Structure formats: C-alpha cells, structure tokens
What does this fold into?
Amino acid sequence: MTVSENTTRTIEMERNLRAIKHAVAQQSLEGLTVSDSTIEDMRRAAMGEISQDEVIRNIYARYSACPDTPNMTPTSIPPRAS
It folds into this structure.
C-alpha cells in the first residue's frame, strides 16, 4: 500500500468513525439506545475488520432471541439497491 493509499484509507476510516458517532447521537436524541456490541460492530466495519453484512448478521443473531423482537431474519430484508 502506498503512502497516498494509506492516507486515503485513514481519512475514510476517520470519516466512518465520525459517522458512527453522529448516528449514535441521533438515536440518543430520538430517545433510543444503541447497544455497545452494535457500536463495536460498526466500529469494526469502519476499520475494515468486518463487512457491513457481518454487522447486520451479528445484530440479527443478538436480537433474534429477544421475545419482543419481530420475527425477522437477514433473508427477510430486501437486498440493497446497487
């Protein structure tokens, strides 16, 4: 990886981490709480350690056992538009 590519990657990671902070703050303003494990998954995705799809799978795995959670699975979610 060149210095330029490394700098660009660092800038992207910082931007993504800032976006996570903003999203969590927005949820808080709306009276909602984002779990620490979800925030950590989003951080890991921002750092390129896991994919966004992995974040979604992790969230479904965590909440599928909750009795108050609607019966949704990752396959019941429509695919993202390209």
